[in-house]
Design goal:
Elements: E1 2-4, E2 7-9, E3 11-20, E4 23-32, H1 37-52, E5 63-67, E6 94-99, H2 101-108, H3 111-121, H4 125-132, H5 140-143
Parallel strand pairs: 3-6
Antiparallel strand pairs: 1-2, 3-4, 5-6
Length: 155
């Protein structure tokens, strides 16, 4: 337990993972119950830098924290945690720090890549013509039924 200005502060141990060289590296961090997700990420990155010799620098748009499995792999069926959320209120003791893929993707896109995406979205005349070819026009009496009808005459 830690004491902070006359208050007793309880600390819990958490297993924090990060992916480095295609393997999950782990630290055990003893964090106060009042730590937020953002505090946890900052503290853990400093610890990984000390223990692994990495040079991670905290940036809110670059890292997120997810609940993880015992192997360190983040649980894919759960979203990342909100930065203001209190870490002890998550109900988990296993977390993985994940670098957001969006930033990596944005850095790697070139102008030729975006032009390929735009050209593939455009409507193709051959596809459009195939949908409308040989269709008989809808007659007024067919519209009066008010719903779908699989027979020639709706009641």
């Amino acid at each position: 337990m830690h004491q902070l200005k006359g208050q007793i502060q309880v600390a819990r141990k958490y297993a924090i993972f990060i992916l480095k060289d295609n393997t999950y590296q782990q630290i055990v961090a003893e964090l106060p119950e009042v730590f937020t997700v953002e505090d946890c990420i900052k503290f853990s990155l400093m610890q990984f830098n000390k223990e692994l010799g990495t040079k991670y620098q905290f940036a809110p748009d670059e890292f997120m924290l997810k609940v993880s499995k015992k192997s360190g792999e983040p649980k894919s069926d759960l979203p990342s945690l909100d930065y203001e959320q209190i870490i002890s209120e998550t109900g988990s003791l296993l977390f993985t720090i994940v670098q957001q893929q969006e930033k990596k993707i944005k850095d790697n896109i070139t102008t030729t890549d975006t032009s390929l995406v735009e050209s593939s979205i455009k409507s193709r005349p051959s596809y459009h013509n195939g949908l409308t070819k040989n269709k008989k026009p809808i007659e007024k009496k067919d519209k009066e039924g008010g719903g779908f009808c699989f027979f020639k005459q709706c009641i």
